[in-house]
Design brief:
4-stranded parallel beta sheet, alpha/beta, globular, 11% strand, 44% helix
Length: 198
Amino acid sequence: MGSTAAHPLMTGALSAKFDALQRAVQEMGQVVVAFSGGADSALLAYVASSTEGVSATAVTAVSPSLAGAEFDDCSRLAESWNLEWIAVTTNEMEQAAYRRNDVDRCFHCKSALMDALQPFVDDGATVVLGVNLDDLDDHRPGQRAAAEAGARFPFVEVGLTKTEIREMSRAFGLETWDKPAAACLASRIPFGTEVTVE
């Protein structure tokens, strides 16, 4: 993809945040986007991949907790947007702490993701996640795990909310702009009930 400029449909404030987002990923130079195919990670992958001077790879974590339809969406979007995209297998199901399914289950899942992405980090890339300002209000231990492992949250850094991410995505004509949130399959299991493949 070529360099992306702010779309004329963006408001002045949103255009300024878009410029700041591009600068943030340009400063990193080489980024790995944790790409689930949802509205947030899709916009981040799209912007990173289309920003001049940035080497971006979109990476989708594959495990039993990822719905097959979500993986298919990632593959289709990557092809449509010409993203450099790969899938990596994560091993959270091998961890007793994850299977125990307490309130910090997501910590162990995100730790497994960061472990799987370590080869990219060793090669000089920064892992980036589509966390936005609204996410900071929830109990999301996965964010803590990612941050402790050195990941960055560009949307938070430039002050983007979920609504603004959808607005920006719509301005660029991304089909993910109104995609409903789709939490991982493990999140459908009540805390305290063991997570199994079945």
